[in-house]
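**Folding the chain**
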Amino acid sequence: MRPSTLNRLAPSMRSVLRIVAALIFMAHGTQKILGYPASDMNPAMFSLSWVAGMMELIGGALLVVGLFSRPVAFLLSGQMAVAYWIAHAPQGPFPALNGGDAAILYCFVFLYLVFAGPGPISLDAILRRDR
C-alpha cells in the first residue's frame, strides 16, 4: 500500500485498536464480575479485585463504543500501571516471567488513546459532529 493510503486509514485503524483492545480488556471484567468465562475468581464486593473488575467491565464497554474515551482511557491506563506494580512486579523484574506484560501493554495502549483520541468510529466522534 502507498503511504498516502496508510495515512488516510490511520484514524480508522485507531478506532479498530481501541475496540479490539477494549473487548479483550472487558473480558477480564466479565470473568471477575460475571463469572464468564468460568473461573475460580469471585472477588468480594468492594475489594480491590472487585473494583478492578468493575473498571474493566464498565470502562471496557465505554471504550468499545467510544464514549468518554479520553477520561476512561486515562483511568484504565492508571489502573493497569497500579495492577502491574501491585500484582506483577513483586514476583520478579521481567514482565514475560511475572505475567505483567499484558498490563504494561494495556497501560500504554490506553495512554496512547488519551492523547490520540478514540478515532472516527466512536460515539465521541458522532456526538462531536452534532455540536
